[in-house]
Amino acid sequence: MLAKFFGRAAAGDNGVAHPAVAGLRLDSVRDARGFQLGVLLDESATEATIAARVDDAATMTHEAVAAWTGKVGTEETVVATCASRSVEDETATAVLWVSVAAAGKAERKDSSEFLTRLARFAPVLYDSADALGMDAKPLSAHELEAWTTVQLVGEDRPKAFPPRAGEVSEGPAAVVADGKVTVSFEVVMEGEGGDEAASGVMEKMVFHGSVLSASTNGAVAVRFGMWSRIASRAHHSARRVGVVSVIAADSATAEDAAWALIARLDVADRLRVRRLWYRQAMGAGASLGAGVMGWRRLEVAA
Q: What SS3 string covers the chain?
């Protein structure tokens, strides 16, 4: 099948924007505690995402994340949260993300009003994590720029937002940036077996993905995003979904690693895992947690 070709950078060009974060722009504000806070805004500036890095990824357990989601979800404008974990070799990095909707005409008309409220809200993101044993620090715009660049296009590219590669293409089964191949899967977190069974699938995939990456000395990286839509919003019901991305330097390695990871699950668990056909760029961003657009197009938005 043909891939969607997003472009190839010309000589002297700064590169092709990665489609995983299409429709987003990066802004910055100093929060109520004095931290520089990076803010990802959608095109209309009616929704925004902020993030905090957890010092020790091992503390980001299912129980801690569920409790944290409940705490930050008490703010009525919170629309979704994501707990993401990126594993390469024996190194794991954990980040907590919160997506918030603009409130009222003033914030929708003037993004500076929206940013001001986000500055007041931001301590809830990391204070709630700290209280649950997940010591966390908010990510600045520079740190968000660097982290998304490394994760989506690689360490060798200049840090920018959106991240830029020399060449980017997306096929039905993968997205490729300068040869960095990312294949993504959705993990259904609803239905038979309930919350415990669904969460168990992601926990198993995190464990096996970590072992897989370590066994390849980092030639394969695995990224996990656990998304929740908050139930407290009056016209919504709670939804949860997992996204898993497997990243390697070539398609064969990425595909082999992805299927090796899935093969470690039992038959019932495998039924919860679905390839994100024709939505691979979105999946790459969703497993990272970066942005306010991905959750709309996943099972979480159903």
A: CCCEEEEECCCCCCCEECHHHCCEEEEEEECCCCCEEEEEEECCCCEEEEEEEECCHHHCCHHHHHHHHHHHCCCCCEEEEEEEEEEECCEEEEEEEEEEECCHHHHHHCHHHHHHHHHHHHHHHHHHHHHCCCCEEECCHHHHHHHHHHHHCCCCCCCCCCCEECEEEECCCCEEECCEEEEEEEEECCCCCHHHHHHHHHHHHHHHHHHHHHHCCCCCEEEEEEEEECCCCCCCCCEEEEEEEEEECCHHHHHHHHHHHHHCCCHHHHCCEEECCCCHHHHHHHHHCCCCCHHHHCHHHC
36 touches 119 (CB < 8 A): no
How open is the CA angle 128-129-131, to the nearest 5 degrees? 65
Average pLDDT for residues 59-63, to the nearest whole number? 94
Amino acid of residue 234: A
| C-alpha separations of 95 from 14, 80, 158, 162, 281 in Å | 28, 14, 22, 18, 20
Q: Give bridge partners of residue 177 from the DSSP assignment.
A: 168, 180
Give the chain's mean pLDDT: 88
| pLDDT bucket at 76, cuts 50 / 70 / 90 | confident
